Amino acid sequence: MSKVRVLVGTRKGAFILTSDGKREKWDVSGPHFAGWEMYHLKGSPADPNRIYASQTSGWFGQIIQRSDDGGKTWHQPGTPPGEPTTAPDGMPKGESNKFMYDTSAETGKPLTTHQFYDGTQHPWEFKRVWHLEPSLTDPNTVYAGVEDAAIFRSTDGGQNWKELSGLRGHGTGPKWQPGAGGMCLHTIILDPSNPKRIWTAISAAGAFRSDDSGENWKPINKGLRSQYIPDQDAEVGHCVHHIAMNPTRPGVLFMQKHWDVMRSDDAGDNWHEVSGNLPTDFGFAIDVHAHEPETVYVVPITSDGLHYVQDGKLRVYRSRTGGNEWEALTKGLPQKDCYVNVLRDAMAVDSLDKCGIYFGTSGGQVYASADAGDSWNPIVRDLPGVLSVEVQTLK
Amino acid sequence: MIRVMLPTHLRTLAHLKGDVELEVAPPVTQRAVLDALEARYPMLRGTIRDHVTLQRRAFLRFFACEEDLSHESPDAPLPEAVASGKEPFVIIGAIAGG
After folding, report:
1. Which among B7, B9, B15 is the nearest to A92, CB-wise?
2. What is the rounded CA–CA span in Å between residue B92 and residue B98?
3. Mutation target vs B (from A37, A60, A64, A103; most B CBs, 10 A cutoff)
């Protein structure tokens, strides 16, 4: 029988929630890495027991953790295959927290500064890993989206990281500037139909695509309009909050921008707005049904100044028409006195026959729907604020 | 033998239950102590000082003998009481928040 494993990153540790295919009864393990901010955990599609985790702290910096047994045990990558994971004195090996921006002469581009809040140029400074995206085919290859915005790749299971510097170096990098949450690369999507194609998104720069395995990149923001930049149609400067894609239809992308829900039917070359009848089109999370590529989910948030759901009601909105026509999903969700937020990486879908939808809130609840959003139940109610939710569907 | 006290989260990361004891050849300086600490516990690299600049991370402090040594030169000799192991070299997370 199928199982699901929900990987939850919170402000004070990671939690792993497991259930059978019915998704009614849940086991909760954790906190793993108690006290640390867990920005993101994600399992390898090629080996579900391989899970990568971003562990971070304002005091101690960035750590990468890895599990090879489905989250039961963890270690910092750094031990070659076949070797013991501990040193002779019994201590664990591993050093995997080294993210060095590429300043080599080979790039031909001195990638030294970006635009800061005050309009001056500011040096790139590594702060943390926001998103980990394991390769679709190789458990040892994983991509990291970091703040200040850049993309790194490891091909040795997370031990060593190398920047794909063509993203920062393609020309618009000095014009990028941080959003209120920092200048982070938070979205990485790998194309299952074209192993050379990668999409990324950066706040506040926009969306970018590589068609050559991350070597060269170009902005793909045509059609985005943002009132908070002087040129509303600028090539970069758009605060893209998240992008989602159904893997069976890789050319079609859905975007939750700062304001506006957007859609592209040509792999990001052109975007058009599909906010339609949403009560507010500000938000962070967006995802697509696993089997119905025209069914999209968002959680509208009141505004950029009020980062909580509107009118005290937690409502997921679903469109079955690829946008524009949205319906509120409320069954099982609080419809009174609720003022939580749902962050950009805190929504995910499983791939069971009846698609399951999951999301976590700033109030520490993780909600699940086993019927594509028609009804919801809390798996847990009182975790620390949820930063990310990912789901693994296990056979 | 130099004694080093680590904050709880770094002890957890290094799988330690108490203080660290390190052999450090003279002269005993901040840099020598941290080099020895990171050599023995490579998982701590980058958590106390920057990988490249080796600057102390902003929200960590170095205390010893009831003195704040955070702004001392990393190559300045540590107090004799630390070098002799009588007093620990304390790495502590700065107060942050409210």
Report:
1. B15
2. 17
3. A60
Nearest by Cα to A50 from A152, A141, A128, A129: A141
Its sign, for the CA torsion A322, A328, A334, A339, is positive
Q: Does residue A92 sit at the B interface (CB-CB below 8 Å)? A: yes
Which residue in chain B has the smallest CA separation from A13? B9
Whether B28 is covered by a domain: the verdict is yes
**Predicted ipTM?**
0.84
Q: Is B33 helix (H, G, I), strand (E, B) or coil?
A: helix
pLDDT band at residue A81 under the 50/70/90 scheme: very low
- Report the domain count for chain B: 1
Give pLDDT tens digits for A147-167. Answer: 999 999 999 999 999 999 999
**Residue B34 counted as domain residue:** yes
For residue A337, the surrounding DSSP H or E stretch is none
Contacts of A230 (CB under 8 A, 6+ apart): none
In a domain, B55, yes or no: yes
Determine the Cα–Cα distance for residues A124 and A112; give it in Å rounded to an integer.
6
φ/ψ (deg, to 5) at A33:
60, 50
Question: What is the distance between the alpha carbons of residues A347 and A137, in angstroms, rounded to a whole number?
Answer: 23
**Residues in chain A closer than 8 A to B14 (CB atoms):** 91
| Ramachandran class of A33: left when φ > 0, alpha when ψ lies in -120 to 50, beta otherwise | left
Predicted TM-score (pTM) of this structure: 0.93
Touching check for A110 and chain B: CB below 8 Å? no
The alpha-carbon gap from B5 to the nearest alpha carbon of chain A, in Å, equals: 15
| H or E element at residue A206 | strand A206-210
- The shortest C-alpha distance from A169 to chain B (Å) reads 21
Report if residue B98 sits inside a domain: no
What's the confidence (pLDDT) of residue A233? 85
Q: B15: domain range?
A: 2-93
CB contact under 8 A, A59 and B52: no
What is the full per-residue pLDDT of chain B (98 aa) written as tens digits? 999 999 999 999 988 999 999 999 999 999 999 999 998 998 899 999 988 889 999 899 999 999 999 999 999 999 999 999 999 999 999 876 55
For the domain that residue B53 is a member of, what is the CATH number?
Answer: 3.10.20.30
DSSP code at position A179: B
